[in-house]
Specification:
The complex is a heterodimer of chains A (115) and B (259). Helix content of chain A is 25%, strand content 42%. Chain A is of the alpha+beta class and 115 residues long. Chain B has a single domain, classed as NAD(P)-binding Rossmann-like Domain (Rossmann fold, 3-Layer(aba) Sandwich). A seven-stranded parallel sheet of chain B has the order 3-2-1-4-5-6-7, with helices on both faces. The chains are: A alpha+beta (115), B alpha/beta (259).
Chain lengths: 115, 259
Amino acid sequence: MVISDFINAMMAKDHEALAACFEERCRFFDYCPSNAGRQNTFLFGPNAINMYFHNKFMFNGFTMHDPRILSDRTANFFVDYNGILVHAQAEIQNYSSNSTSLDDSLIKEMVIRPA
Amino acid sequence: MGVYVITGASSGIGAKTAEVLKERGHEVVNIDLKDGDIEANLATREGRDFALKELHDRYPDGIDAMICNAGVSGGKVPISLIVSLNYFGSTEMAQGVFDLLQKKRGSCVITSSNSIAQGAMRMDVAGLLNNHPDEKRIVALVKDVDPAVGHVYYASTKYALARWVRRMSPEWGSRGVRLNAVAPGNVRTPMTKNMLPEQRRSMEAIPVPTHFGEEPLMEPIEIANAMAFLASPEACGINGVVLFVDGGTDALVNSEKVY
């Protein structure tokens, strides 16, 4: 399941593997940073996700802790935004339309919100 | 054609900007420690005074633009050099030629850095530079700081430069002199060639979207064209701007900062 791939990539701080979870015309929104006094994140496309998290992983701008996969669409975890922890929940709102099953799907829309 | 003065034009972004301006037919005066038309150490008050006197002697009728580009990155050099050259070497030179710029309703461009948007700077250091710019006291304060944290001081001086531009530009503009800053991304220069391994890893984690999949270093020409434009009369409506010339890095990491 792509949600597992997503979590594994986040935990490994592997920005390339993370980007590979998303389809070409995807979007990734994270509404948690404002809880840590930072700008929320709005990314469009896997290259943007790749570059953005390369930066965040290197400079400790996004570190995932204790993830729990709740379903094939949702996961619950803590995120450390440069020292400020937020309890968050990620939801895959849309998968790629050309996949035959969730097993070979890519993420089309993902939103992370405070849990 | 105009008289364009540029500091730190013996190499890197400065050299490329000088080349662009010469191609456009301008007279270019390079002020640098070595191989300059005027050779001076802009990290010292004496060096700056010498360079300013030379400019006033050579161009009593004024100059068209001043590009304050000389600077040094952190990591290997004393923190005091970063403070003196990057901040005071720019602001003192800019203020020192204000009268020459005013004579020709000219323009001043300051080289900042897109590192100012990445949270690496210390706002207390930037505050000291902008609010209490006593070079001797600040240099004495940082003289024993470990050069290993030079990148923090580099970003702090560049942030202070950008804020200085924002603060000064309304008054300067009202007196006929435009004042802007360019905030380049990581550029292929002698400065980036000598990076320490950890600096290189950090640099690679500051991606340049227009160079995606390649080494994230911009070419000096990409910055030089923007500097030449801002310094030129074509940019007559632009004052007080910090122009990010970084291939979209700032937009990537700060997309919500629209203003």
